[in-house]
Design goal:
The structure holds 2 protein chains of 2 kinds. By secondary structure, chain A is α+β, with helices and mostly antiparallel strands. Chain A has 2 domains: 126 residues, Beta-Lactamase, CATH 3.30.450.30; 92 residues, Barwin-like endoglucanases (Beta Barrel), CATH 2.40.40.20. Chain A is built from 8 helices and 11 strands. In chain A, strands 6-10-7-9-8-11 form a 6-stranded mixed β-barrel. Chain A has a 5-stranded antiparallel beta sheet with strand order 2-1-5-4-3. In chain A, β8 and β9 form a beta hairpin. In chain A, α1 packs antiparallel against α3 and α5 runs antiparallel to α6. The longest helix of chain A is centred in the middle third of the chain and has 30 residues. Chain A starts with a helix and ends with a strand. Chain B is α+β, with helices and mostly antiparallel strands. Chain B has a single domain, classed as Beta-Lactamase (2-Layer Sandwich), CATH 3.30.450.30. Helices cover 39% and strands 27% of the residues of chain B. Chain B has a 5-stranded antiparallel beta sheet with strand order 2-1-5-4-3, sandwiched between helices. In chain B, a hairpin with a 4-residue loop joins β1 and β2. Chain B is globular. The chains are: A alpha+beta, B alpha+beta.
Chain lengths: 304, 135
């Protein structure tokens, strides 16, 4: 799988952020001075100039240590450049943009996209940035370049879809079905299936734990255990459907600041709270995560 | 016979623009007011120091005077790079910048032609400091 798929995943995420929040004028991701991904509205030369200006700044930043975040407030809008792992995410928004909303979107979606992309494409992308400076098209060649880019994107999309299809085939694979089929096939085929089953035994195919975004609500009372969160029944049902008989006893909760905690969970009792996308959390867990009521967290099951 | 020595003096006419003098003294007053505010902000234990520059004067007060040049160059670069980034996206003039590093953070702002950089610990309340310095 090429690095293009990696960039495709990130670019799609950036486009989605812009769709969800039209006040976001532009956003791009770079790493070690190289452009990794940008949304469809951002011109490459602008992105590269931005990265150069940022690099010039970081070269002089010994006084404050490695730069983690910059917020530029201008008369017509604002720019935020924030480090996520080794990447820098740049978000440009108009003055009207709700900073909290934009931050929530970017701080959740981008790390998830990076993590997912890394799982799909574990090889390092340091050696190759998808967009290089030499790719800056001349004014006259812009249309051709755009067409080329669209073709390339379509090719990447097709490739990604093929790979997703393959992955789905693997995910929907059930040893029982194979056993039924093998009963009627030739001996050679049976041997192949046996080999395949052996492989499956050593590496059971379980889907990746889904990450669900939920809003924190306070959970209080005398008999409330301080190590248990309450999760929406619908979410628990989804996990049960995904993992069947596999036991899920705990969940991992991650706050916006990156702090995580592993704790027990139960379903939300009150029917009026069902389907609201909330997670009820005792104060102790909120303190550990440095989060509070009304803030977003991500929850994923720990499958045994 | 003793020759009398004649000395010729040329006089240059100096035109005094009263408006310019008024503007200059207004600038000086703004610089002074901002310096006073910064001196007050500097009392906060989380504030490492500050730099204020106008067209004609500059004041620097830092915990580590030996790093004066480092901080001054950084301050200039932050203003310069930020304006460059803002220009790329047609966002107009930069009003203020918050830059957070692993060790400390800096708040840079422009007020009536005066460029100010305040350096502080990471846990300092930069929003409150910005409020204090803003007109």
């Amino acid at each position: 799988m090429s690095e293009q798929v990696y960039a495709f995943a990130l670019e799609s995420t950036l486009d989605e952020i812009q769709n969800a929040c039209p006040e976001v004028i532009s956003n791009l991701i770079f790493k070690k001075g190289k452009l990794i991904a940008k949304d469809k509205n951002t011109k490459e030369n602008i992105a590269n100039h931005t990265i150069k200006a940022f690099d010039a700044l970081t070269e002089r930043a010994e006084a404050i240590g490695d730069v983690e975040k910059i917020k530029i407030q201008s008369t017509e809008g604002k720019v935020s450049i924030a480090a996520t792992k080794d990447f820098y995410l740049t978000t440009v928004s108009s003055k009207k943009a709700d900073e909290k909303y934009v931050n929530t979107l970017t701080r959740i979606l981008i790390p998830i996209a990076i993590r997912l992309a890394e799982k799909i494409q574990p090889a390092s992308i340091e050696s190759e940035a998808v967009m290089t400076e030499e790719a800056e098209p001349e004014e006259d060649d812009k249309d051709e370049a755009t067409e080329g880019a669209i073709d390339a994107n379509e090719a990447i999309e097709e490739k990604a879809i093929d790979e997703i299809d393959e992955a789905e085939e693997i995910e929907t694979y059930h040893p029982d079905e194979i056993e039924e089929e093998t009963a009627t096939t030739e001996l050679e085929e049976t041997e192949q299936v046996d080999e395949l089953e052996d492989e499956i035994d050593t590496a059971p195919l379980l889907p990746e734990p889904p990450v669900t975004q939920l809003i924190v609500e306070n959970l209080g009372g005398l008999l409330v255990p301080s190590d248990t969160v309450r999760v929406d029944q619908e979410v628990i049902n989804q996990w049960s459907e995904l993992y069947g008989d596999n036991k899920i006893k705990e969940v991992e909760v991650e706050a916006l600041n990156g702090k995580t905690i592993r704790c027990k969970f139960k379903k939300i009792k009150k029917s009026k709270d069902a389907g609201k996308g909330i997670v009820k959390m005792p104060e102790k867990i909120q303190l550990t995560l440095e989060t509070q009521q009304g803030e977003l967290v991500t929850v994923k099951p720990i499958v045994e | 016979m003793v020759k009398k020595k004649q000395s010729q003096e040329t006089e240059t006419a100096i035109v005094v623009d009263e408006g310019e003098i008024a503007a200059s003294s207004e600038d000086d007053q703004t610089f002074k007011d901002l310096s006073d505010k910064l001196a007050e902000i500097r009392k906060d234990k989380d504030v490492i120091g500050y730099i204020i520059r106008s067209k004609t004067s500059a004041t620097i007060d830092l915990n580590k005077p030996e790093k004066l040049a480092e901080y001054a160059i950084f301050s200039y670069q932050v203003m310069d790079s930020s304006q460059e980034i803002s220009d790329q996206f047609d966002l107009g003039d930069v009003e203020n910048i918050l830059i957070e590093g692993k060790e400390s953070k800096a708040l840079c702002t422009k007020i009536q032609g005066n460029k100010i950089s305040i350096f502080m610990e990471r846990n300092a309340d930069h929003a409150d400091i910005l409020k204090q310095i803003s007109p």
